[in-house]
Amino acid sequence: MPVKTDAIGKQWPAAAYEVGAEKIREFADAVGAANPVHREHEAARAAGFRDLVAPPMFCVVYSARAMGPAILDPDLGINLATMLHGSQEFEWEEPVCDGDVISTTATCKEIYEKDGKGFYVFETISTNQEGERTVKGTWTNIVRGV
Amino acid sequence: MSEMKTGDAVPVLRVTPDKYLPYRYAGASGDFNPIHIDPEFAKAVGLPGNILHGLWMMAQVARGNAAVAEGDPRALKRLSVQFRGMGFPEQELIVTGTVKEVDGDRVVIDTVATQADNQVIRNAEAEVHVP
């Protein structure tokens, strides 16, 4: 069965995420980010950040809200049971701090078939409450046995 | 201007995720896919056991490479990875990198993450600003 490609170009509504200090600390602990700027407000401000700052990979936490509805969209018809995360790229800009409100929009950039597998490429653009871009993500999911 | 030069090795990062790390990362990230936290479910779908979150392994690659800028969260500008092998809890993950290109304070690093002989993250490239 060939992959459905109708959803190329589809964009999903922006998803908002309110960043909090305890979530930053919890994430920093889980990934082993030891810099005190992820734990102490004063240390972060002393280092020139607006406030307690998230590790770069915290972007997965706020981007996931936008990626969920994209991956589950029946227009794509992705079989989650056979889906793998193939590759991932992030390009970071403005750091994300305690109190920020991040808005992320996901777009389906490419769908193609190769070697019996379906490739689904999504782009997420995240911006903060000032309209500054925090990260651009490129997510490639591979579905086996299409 | 960075003092790093092409061919320099990034300090090696070694980390052994404990048995319960996938639960903590699931809570921290919001990714509760049972293949990461339920060994029985993982076996039922043909895996040897519950596997590490790929994005947790990517976070280790991020951390290993940001170390060249003393872990400054502003330093990492870009990271691209390919997930290939499966990673497992209670096995040491080793992140290594080699400087590929230096242009002023912009350093591009070829980097990989391995567990035993298994390259779990490959063809990865990090761009770090090292003032």
How far the N terminus sits from the C terminus of chain A, by CA atoms, comes to 6 Å
State the low-pLDDT regions of chain B, or none.
Answer: none
CATH architecture of the domain at 13-19 and 52-129 in chain B: Roll
CATH superfamily caption of the domain at 13-19 and 52-129 in chain B: Hotdog Thioesterase
Helicity of chain B, as a percent range: 10-25%
Describe it.
The complex is a heterodimer of chains A (146) and B (131). Chain A is of the alpha+beta class. Chain A has a domain at 15-19 and 56-143: Hotdog Thioesterase (Thiol Ester Dehydrase, Chain A, Roll), CATH 3.10.129. In chain A, 21% of the residues lie in helices and 34% in strands. In chain A, strand 4 (117-127) and strand 5 form a beta hairpin. The longest helix of chain A has 14 residues, at 59-72. Chain A is elongated and about 55 Å long. The model of chain A has no long low-confidence stretch (mean pLDDT 95). By secondary structure, chain B is an alpha+beta fold. Chain B contains four helices and five strands. Chain B has a domain at 13-19 and 52-129: Roll (Thiol Ester Dehydrase, Chain A), CATH 3.10.129. Helix content of chain B is 24%, strand content 34%. The longest helix of chain B is centred in the middle third of the chain and has 13 residues, at 54-66. In chain B, a hairpin with a 2-residue loop joins strand 4 (106-115) and strand 5 (118-129). Strand 2 (83-92) of chain A pairs antiparallel with strand 2 (76-83) of chain B, so a sheet runs across the interface.
Which features does this protein show?
heterodimer, A: 146 residues, alpha+beta, Thiol Ester Dehydrase, Chain A, 5-stranded antiparallel sheet, 3 helices, 21% helix, elongated, B: 131 residues
